[in-house]
DNA sequence: TGTTCTATATAGATCACCTATGTCTGAACG
DNA sequence: CGTTCAGACATAGGTGATCTATATAGAACA
């Protein structure tokens, strides 16, 4: 996948609804129709980093299937970060568009 | 800048018009209003790689200021590559959009 | 009880990109 | 003429995010 977008995708996914780790990647794969597949080895380090930086919070709970799972939800700082990440993403999309199809 | 988009930007820039190395980065910086600034240390390795892979061709010529410069133009293979890169980019933008704003 | 599935976890490798620096050439200028 | 300066190209070395591969634990089930 595209480097630099993972935080954005994770933050937005758990902003919509708190989820456990693999639930986040399942949701991303599902909603993008398989375009983005975030594997555990990419997912968990990212979650740990985001938690350490205070953008998300994890607490042990249960998954949909009743299994023990760490459920993450977004923090106030995370919402703030998400806003700036979205802006940054929009800016990038615009800029690439300008190069691809100059006015 | 966003990793994975450099080839796309370079290929499209010299497809529109052949340019020498620094001319490419000048053009990208100018048209994106400074959002993307490709510095020589990123640019030249990318150009060499693209040339080695047959997507662009360089030939010694002159810059706008009459200096000795290596002018690159896109090859047939480069156009093909550009097409697939554009498709890939569109797909990514769509997928991120789906995560950010689910239907 | 041993196999499988869900779920979390981590080490190590990879690869693109960035920082910093170097080299070459020609022009301008004293 | 020598020196300096700027345009242009080049490369080494580092960084950081992501991927590959593997490991661990508990629950279910045969």
Features:
homodimer, 103 residues, alpha+beta, three-stranded antiparallel beta sheet
How would you classify the quaternary structure?
Answer: homodimer
Output mean pLDDT of chain A: 94
Could you please say which CATH topology of chain A applies here?
Answer: Arc Repressor Mutant, subunit A
| Major pleated sheet of chain A | 3 strands, antiparallel
What strand order characterises the main sheet of chain A? 1-3-2
Number of DSSP helical runs of chain A: 4
SSE series of chain A: HEHHEEH
- What CATH first level of chain A would be assigned? Mainly Alpha
**Uncertain runs of chain A with pLDDT below 50, 5 residues or more?**
none
Report the CATH architecture of chain A.
Orthogonal Bundle
- Provide the helix percentage of chain A: 55-70%
Rg measurement of chain A, Å: 15 Å
Task: Please state the overall shape of chain A, judged from the principal axes of the Cα atoms.
Answer: globular
Largest interface, chains and sizes: A-B, 28 and 28 residues
The CATH fourth-level homologous superfamily of chain A: Winged helix-like DNA-binding domain superfamily/Winged helix DNA-binding domain
Summed up, the domain count of chain A is: 1
Number of strands of chain A: 3
The percent range for strand residues of chain A is 15-25%
What is the end-to-end distance of chain A? 29 Å
